[in-house]
Design goal:
The longest helix is centred in the C-terminal third of the chain and has 30 residues. 20% of the residues are buried. The protein folds into two domains: 170 residues, Flavodoxin domain (Rossmann fold, 3-Layer(aba) Sandwich); 51 residues. The model has no long low-confidence stretch (mean pLDDT 84). The chain starts with a strand and ends with a helix. With 226 residues, it is an alpha/beta fold. Helix content is 48%, strand content 14%. Strands 1, 2, 3, 4, 5 and 6 form a six-stranded parallel sheet that branches. The protein has nine helices and six strands. This is Flavodoxin-like fold domain-containing protein. It comes from Granulicatella elegans ATCC 700633. Keywords: Oxidoreductase.
Amino acid sequence: MTKTLIIMSHPDVAQSSSQQFLLAAIKGEERIQIRHLESILAEQENNHFDKRIERACLQEADRIIFQFPFYWYQCPSVMKQWMDEVLTLNLSQKGKKKELGIVVTVGAKKDRYAAGGSVGFGIEELLRPYQALANQLGWNYQTPFIIYQFQYLKETQKQQLLVDYLYYLENGSHYFSEKEQWMLEKLEQYSNTHTGSVREWIVELQQEREELVMMLSEMGNEADGF
């Protein structure tokens, strides 16, 4: 099974509603390890990371996730320090490639990063240095997982976020059909009163996807007739 390592940076994680939500989501997940950089650094007498320990954690992981709030269009300074001190080209490897994913929480509205928005660039563009990093290390870069304005999400949106987040951690950015199967397998691990209703929801999604595929196919056939 794939082992996921979350490298998280947040200066006040205890007071962050979004990070506490994400931490609660992975509680009990044996294949997911998390390292909170600020907590680790606070225990170091010389204010530097232990390269041996950090690199060993990276070597053991199949998928690495950088998780952080988006501060002035970049990661917090402690994560930058960790990258400067820990990362090395020796971490690149032959054979099965590691994956690098990015989980970012953003306080601004999504449309600020859209075409014509006040920022002038999309989030994916601003995160390109991490793609360059993955390329340099020989890792597969995953489409970033972006959370906009968590504090304004409704309960149903948070429930969907939880499912999407767990899927991203365990599978990266793959196809929806694979996500359906993952959800069914995940349900086998849990038994609660909502299992039946969730299964019905998944079946509905499968049916909707099949109907969409048929509709697009029919549209394509009609276009061929012109």
